[in-house]
Amino acid sequence: MTRKAWGGRFQGEAIEWVDAFNASIHFDQVLIEKDIAGSIAHATMLAAKEIITDDEKQQIIDGLSAILDDYDEGRLEFSVQHEDIHMNVEHALIEKIGDVGGKLHTARSRNDQIATDMHLYVKEKAYEIIESIETLQETILELAEDNIHCIMPGYTHLQRAQPVLFSHHIMAYFWMLKRDKDRFNDALSRIDMSPLGAGAISGTTFDIDREHTQELLGFSDIYQNSMDAVSDRDYIIETLANISLVMVHLSRLSEEIIFWMSEEANFVQLSDQFTTGSSMMPQKKNPDMAELIRGKSARTTGALTSMLMLVKGLPLTYNKDLQEDKEGVFDAVTTVKGSLRIMTGMLDTMTINEDVLEKTVQNDFSNATELADYLVQKGVPFRKAHEVVGELVLKCINEGKYLKDLSITEYKNHHDSIEEDIYTVLSPKTVVDRRKSLGGTGTEAVRKQLQVAKDTIKK
Ligand code: ARG
């Protein structure tokens, strides 16, 4: 029977399946590097403040480094009896260096320890996610530049609305991702904070130096209230919200790709590497990766909701409920990083069916607004122009043609200010390029947009 680190007060034998329920070691072991970094900083500070000797500090640090090597080489054994990563490491340390290992936990609690580990973890992952977002943004920029001449239908209500440049459409996602990145950067000021030294709840009687450990761990700020320090999980909630929003953006883009790739639209082709076949229907090429990203966005939103519910009714300070804060965020981090990577690869290898797009925009009514604007420029009030064009569209639908197919006499029968130049005016290229307004889809405006976009990722 292994004695618990907190065994002194207890007499009853532990029950293994209760220990298993209580334990977090099966998931919090991913924090081992952070946990050891926090412990090394803590021991260094304890020695600097002469709470432990330099020799004890050295033994502790050497022991902890050896434990990390053991872990890296698969030699470290964990046990549910030692509950979590903190006590498993402490147990291994005492086994390795003897009783002096027991001095490490002086002036510290698992409550400030786990908070420190999680701050270090979330900070590292936030930077990694920011980097993955940037890689995807670069891919989108490239795609937009390479296909600047491609015109596609722009939709509202999933009905063709007005033709737009493919580049303009895809760049909308660049800007969503920029806001996502900004949100992660903003959250960093609240993530990058040291709770270490808060103790279990109220600080400690030892003459510790919290700023020393803050500095050693590279935190740019420090919690001013020990009770807040051990019970704050806002930074995890914020991170999950930021991740959820990235996933929602990726899910929207996935949905578009799935539609573009459908036989009905046939606007793009995904590469073989990013699609799958059907076990039964030999003709199939399915956009599984895009569908999975769309599906996985449900998980991250679920993690956010769980985390909000977790803290909703919690009194200060630490409650064991908080052990449940980890799996959701670990999973969300893996999910968002994986999805960003897949989306990057998918877009990087996607080809645009230019001829299909060309045919599509030639054969629809997405130039109808243009005809109305044309009449307005000739002095016709917009309401009247709208009505005239509506009648022309109806006539075309009844006769199975498009606006470009109407003869000039037919036009003149509806409004005599329509001239020969109407055919150029109605061509998708003209329709697009005349939208020169800032942020509009005209080629010139999009080129400017691309330049501004590039400047946002240049550091
Ligand atoms: N495994 C615990 C967690 O993840 C560490 C903190 C435990 N603290 C305590 N007082 N039981 O939340």
Automatic annotation (TrEMBL):
User: Does the record bear Transferase in its keywords?
Assistant: no
Catalytic reaction annotation: 2-(N(omega)-L-arginino)succinate = fumarate + L-arginine
Superkingdom of this protein's organism: Bacteria
Where does it mainly reside?
cytoplasm
MF terms in GO: argininosuccinate lyase activity
Please provide the Gene Ontology terms (biological process) for this protein: L-arginine biosynthetic process via ornithine
Matching entries from InterPro entries are given as: Arg_succ_lyase_C (IPR029419), Argininosuccinate_lyase (IPR009049), Fumarase/histidase_N (IPR024083), Fumarate_lyase_CS (IPR020557), Fumarate_lyase_fam (IPR000362), Fumarate_lyase_N (IPR022761), L-Aspartase-like (IPR008948)
Going by the UniProt record, its keywords in alphabetical order are: Amino-acid biosynthesis, Arginine biosynthesis, Cytoplasm, Lyase
| Span of domain Fumarate lyase N-terminal | 8-302
List the SUPFAM superfamilies hit by this protein, alphabetically.
L-aspartase-like
Spell out the subcellular localization from the entry. Cytoplasm
What is one term from the GO cellular component aspect held by the record? cytosol
- Per the UniProt entry, the Enzyme Commission number(s) are 4.3.2.1
In what residue span(s) does the Argininosuccinate lyase C-terminal domain sit?
A: 365-433
Q: Span of the secretion signal?
A: none
Pathway entry: Amino-acid biosynthesis; L-arginine biosynthesis; L-arginine from L-ornithine and carbamoyl phosphate: step 3/3
Q: Name the family the entry cites.
A: Belongs to the lyase 1 family. Argininosuccinate lyase subfamily.
Which protein is depicted?
A: Argininosuccinate lyase
